[in-house]
Amino acid sequence: MDDNDHGESPVVGLLLAAGGGRRLGGRPKALLPHHGRPLVEHAARALREGGCERVFVVLGAAADEVRARAALPGCVLVDNPRWASGMGSSLRAGLASLTTGQAYGAALVMLVDQPGIGPAAVARVRTAYRSPGTLAAASYGGERGHPVLFGADHWARIAADATGDQGARGYLRSHAREIVLVECGDVAEPYDIDTEEDLSHLE
Known about the structure:
Layout: E1 11-17, E2 33-34, E3 37-38, H1 39-49, E4 55-59, H2 63-69, E5 75-79, H3 87-97, E6 106-111, H4 119-126, E7 135-140, E8 143-151, H5 155-161, H6 169-174, E9 179-183
Parallel strand pairs: 1-4, 1-6, 4-5, 7-9
Antiparallel strand pairs: 2-3, 6-8, 7-8
């Protein structure tokens, strides 16, 4: 494993936090309160505490408000002006931001609306990194979920494939045999905060 010149881990965190919460009455998911703080803070902390020293956060809906209200120390904030077109645009914006400076070996991608996934699952998936050709994902009872690790060799093709709300789903499906699945069902719960009913998961 080749670390970069600064001694940081070659695995960087990439948090997709641009969604507008359409099914939540237009409440941006990044700002939903959880334990008294915006949800985006919990997700960014999970990535940092799971071993990602640098975390890139893609913002979209209410980006200025997220900047004003959320404490995101050590994070690089990336704006996605096309966030309303779906998660694919956020993934493209995030991956593009990783190629403009320091060289990283992989991106560990997490969604802002899965507060049941914490540092333990991040750390497990991160340790699956072997090279820029690595593809790995958390699994829950054998079912693939988040977080997902994309080696840098895959970024350009993932970005080209990411349209609408697809994200990397199609790419992962076509490369299923290459993905290292890391069971995380004993340390995390992969529910999403998508609807009013799901808000019961927040505290």
